Amino acid sequence: MLIKINFINIGMATIRLSLIFILSSLLFLGLASATTYVAIQSPVNYTIYNNGSVYLGKVGPGESFYVLANASTTNKTGYLVNLGWDTLTSVKLPSGWYAQQSPSYSNPMRIRITVSPNTTNGRYALILRAVNFNNYSHLGNLTFDAYVNVTTNVFSVKVNPTNLYAGVNQPVNINVNINNTGISDDPFLIYLNGLPSWNVTDSVISLHGKNTHFSYPIFIGQPGRYYLNLTISSSSSRFLKRSYPILFEVNTTVYNDYKAVGSGVSISPVIFEPAYAFMSLVQYLYSLITH
Predict the structure, then answer these.
(1) Is 165 left (phi over 0), alpha (psi -120 to 50) or beta?
(2) How far apart are CA 191 and CA 244, in angstroms?
(3) What DSSP letter does each residue of 257-278 carry, written as one string?
C-alpha cells in the first residue's frame, strides 16, 4: 500500500513538472514572438515590422501626400509603450522628391512627402524610419520600405449640366463631382474660360478616397451664346487636369428665365423669392410635359 502511494505521489509530481514546463515554454515563446511594430493609419491601415514593406497607393507627379502612424508600439518583451516612437522620418527618397519629417513627439506621427513634378509614370520605392530618440524606450529604430505608383490617373470628374440656359444676370450652377482615387489631399482648382471678364477660380478639397460634390455658379450680364471650357486641375501639378466644353445660352426669354431659376442661385432681393419659386415650378412642370 505504501509503495502504491509513492507511485501516485511521483506521478502527481511528474504532472506538475510537465505543466510548469509547458507554461514556461508558452511564456518564452510569447516573449520571443513579441515584436516591435509601426501601426500605419493613412493612406492605408497597416501594421508593419522592421524591414517590412507596404504599398501606399497612387499619386500624381508634383503632388504631396502624408503618411500617418501611431506612436504606440510594444517592446521586445511584449510591454505596450504608449508613446514609444518619437518621430517618423525618411531615409531614402527617389531623385527630386523631398520630405518634411513628423514633428518630434507628435501622435499620430505625420510625415509629408512631395513627388518631383518631373517624375515619370511608374512604381517607386521609399525608405522610412520610426525613431526612438536615444533608445529611451528600448525600441531602437524601425525601418521599412514603402511603395507608391506615380500616375496622372489619380482622379475622375463628372460635370452636369453641360448645356446651360439663363437670363441676363441670372446665375446658374455647374455641378462638379470629383472622385479622388489617389493618396494626395492637395486642393483642386475649378475655373472657367470663355466668358467676358470672368476670372473666378474656386479652390476645393476632395480628400483621398472620397467622391465630393461642388457647385460652381456662373452668370453674365450680356445676352448671347457662349462656348465655354470648364477646367478642374490639381493645385500642385500642371499634369493633372480635366476640361469639359460647356454651352451657355443667355437671353431675356421667359423660357430661359424659367430654366435658369430651376437650376440657379437667386441673388435677387427677398421680395422676389415667391416669384422665383413659381417660375421654378413652371419650369419643372414644363420639363415633365416635354419629356
Answers:
(1) beta
(2) 11
(3) HHHHHHHB---S-GGGHHHHHH
Which single residue is written with the C-alpha cell 445676352?
A: 223
Residue ranges in the chain modelled with pLDDT below 50: 1-5, 7-8, 10, 13-33, 266-273
Q: What's the N-to-C CA distance of the chain in angstroms?
A: 104
Q: How many CA atoms lie within 13 A of 27 on its CB side?
A: 6
Sheet hosting strand 172-180, strand order edge to edge: 155-160, 172-180, 211-218
Percent of the chain with pLDDT over 90: 65
The reported pLDDT for the residue numbered 138 is: 87
Angle, in degrees to the nearest 10, between helices 254-263 and 273-290: 100
Tell me the pTM. 0.73
Q: Chain centroid to CA 124: how far?
A: 19
Q: Is the four-CA dihedral 75, 80, 86, 90 of positive or negative sign?
A: positive
CA distance 149 to 27: 42
